[in-house]
Amino acid sequence: MTRVTLLLLVVATLAGVALFTVTTSRHVNAQEPMPIFVKTIPPGYRDWKVVSVAHEAGELNDIRAILGNDIAINAYREGRLPFPEGAIVGRIAWSFVPSEENNKTFGREQSFVAGSPTDAYLQFMVKDSKKYAATGGWGYSSFDKNGKPTDDAGMKSCFPCHQKIKERDFVFTRYAP
Amino acid sequence: MTRVTLLLLVVATLAGVALFTVTTSRHVNAQEPMPIFVKTIPPGYRDWKVVSVAHEAGELNDIRAILGNDIAINAYREGRLPFPEGAIVGRIAWSFVPSEENNKTFGREQSFVAGSPTDAYLQFMVKDSKKYAATGGWGYSSFDKNGKPTDDAGMKSCFPCHQKIKERDFVFTRYAP
Known about the structure:
- The structure is a homodimer.
- Chain A is an alpha+beta fold.
- The first copy, chain A, contains five helices and five strands, in the order αββαβαββαα.
- The first copy, chain A, is 29% helix and 28% strand.
- In chain A, strands 1-2-3-4-5 form a five-stranded antiparallel sheet.
- In chain A, a hairpin with a 5-residue loop joins β1 (49-56) and β2.
- Chain A binds chain B through residues 46-50, 52-58, 60, 63-65, 67, 92, 94, 96, 99, 101-102, 105-106, 108-114, 117, 161, 164-165, 172-174, 176-177, and chain B through 46-50, 52-58, 60, 63-65, 67, 92, 94, 96, 99, 101-102, 105-106, 108-114, 117, 161, 164-165, 172-174, 176-177.
């Protein structure tokens, strides 16, 4: 082995060690931690108080109730931002359908109501600043009508959109008095 | 006084008595009782559970949350009809407005949210079969954003429309699970 070849081998080995160190340290030090998605539906959510209501048109084409647990509702009513630890904001989305029975009674095409559950029937944001530090202190979850969580690939679209409204502590819905 | 004059006087008196009797008996027997409209807002309604949500287009152009007190919610969940005494179904109606801040974040015109309170901001149906017998056992109320009740003339349009859905115990909104 020539001196040149030996030198190249030493350089290549050092470079490899350096690369390995950088790669692992990124995981160990959690400089860019992976998002953690929530996989359980908060118990009793259907009894929660109303934050507001909304209609998402276009591809979603749903009508929705946005609800909050007591920690979230109290924060909303007090105008507190950021939301305190333990706050959960949820939303139920039903398909947006004309009510033929109402329209017949009213005598005009006027009434749109909650139909069947949508594919992303239930969604929640759970505030835990430490556990969900990678996604602004909120853990995200989404479930279909059977309670099946959305897969992690699908969940990766949550934070990039919520991240745009950091000044509202990442929460879209405003309280409707 | 001639006999003819006396006869006319007797006839007129009898007719008067008869008219008085008919008039008073209509009220006493309550054959056509007047509707009674409720003038007070049920305390704590904003904390009630969600029955469903809806959008009324056209002149109303609102988005609404339909809520129920515990008696109403329990009856809905059990599928009980008619609703039991003490049930109250309420609805809050906000103007139906596009959310510019949401649309900007989403990058598309998609989001409609609850805006300012509508003219008929709050409405309630209170079940009391005896008190509100004239209107199917439900007392109706309506309030603007300042809590001012709608005048009785305006309230007379409630029952003629609800009367058409007697088979649903006069209640339009179905429970959205």
